[in-house]
Amino acid sequence: NSFQMINIDPYPQEIMEKAKGIHSSISLPPSLDSVFFIARMLRAVNDEMEVRRLIDEILLHRSLLRYSHENEETIYDRLFPHVYHRFSVSKLEGSPLSGNLHVFVQRMKDVHLRDILSTTAASQILHAYMALQEIFGRTIVATERKTGISSAIVTILDLEGLNLTEFLNPLSPNCKIAKMIVSLWAEYFSETLVRILIINSPGIISIMWQITRHIVDSRTANRLLFLSSVHQLKEYLDPSAIPVAYGGTWRDDSGFSHQPIYCTTVPKPVLPEDIADHDLVWRKHGIEKVPKPSQHSLKAKKQVDIRVCVPHSGHLVYSFTTSCSSPSSGEVIFSILSIENGKEVIVSPPFKIISITVPEQGSLPVIKGEYIIRFSNPSSSWFNSKVAISHQFVSPSEV
């Protein structure tokens, strides 16, 4: 049924003209430099100011988290191994095309989200997801350069082995992290990843949609397709872009995949010794007694600034948790800024987060001057978001 094959609707001339206008007035890094990169944003939001804001935020994140110049395997193995090694994913570099679309495979077999969340802060998973979208973006821009037409990503999501009960409660850790990931996809990348083909669902479709409604907004839900059989993949994708295990001809014998017929890596299990030590970030800096946290309550659309005077070079160590009396709220936007010549300069990118199982923590290299740890509440809910944060400046001599 070739009429069902997934492709990208051509961009209207109006969007392309606007995209060219923005493209000529901003500087995109070479790996993302495509007028289609901007057209994707415009199709998603159709607001020039908003598109500029989204692009600025994506570029700031990749720069401050230092994945802008790293290749795919370095991002997986060196920058975010504690995340990627727990998941089962395919490699995009050199992946086959279905039409002008790249296919990404993710398997949930032996992936235990609840265990992963007991070892890894939610923000690390979200930062790794932003880096994955960077890989998506680079891959399709490289293809657009070769073909001259727009490209995108389609994901095959294999739910075999997924523990459905962990998703039945919308307030479960699994639902919370899934919701935050979907929120990033919807806000920044909805036209990069255009379809998710879901196979081997562990529950009947009506239950799957019920769970999906906890996690996915209605517009994003239209991107999901639940297939009743893996054989249906051929109705949507070229066989050369479907792994052999699912009835296609794609094998990954590059050495990246531990399962060449699935084209995916094998996830590392979470062992008892991997469970997060919440005080480790402090002990690494020679602090045996964690500072008592300060408590902050943020009303809707309000922010709180914690000012830190740094006497000389060293590290700013922090750890915080979030909470809310409303189970459906509680997100905060966290960032760290420095004051340079009277102006605020972002040194840790603004990021929307709810702490889940493990506290959010980090250690930021700093130089002499003033810094601001900033929390804001993006919600318009009646309920306040609460933050408990410990922080301390550490001199190199103390470590």
Automatic annotation (TrEMBL):
GO terms for cellular component: cytoplasm. SUPFAM superfamilies: CRAL/TRIO domain (SSF52087). It comes from the Eukaryota. Residues 72-254 form the CRAL-TRIO domain. It holds the Pfam family CRAL_TRIO. This is CRAL-TRIO domain-containing protein. It comes from Pristionchus mayeri. The lineage of its organism: Eukaryota, Metazoa, Ecdysozoa, Nematoda, Chromadorea.
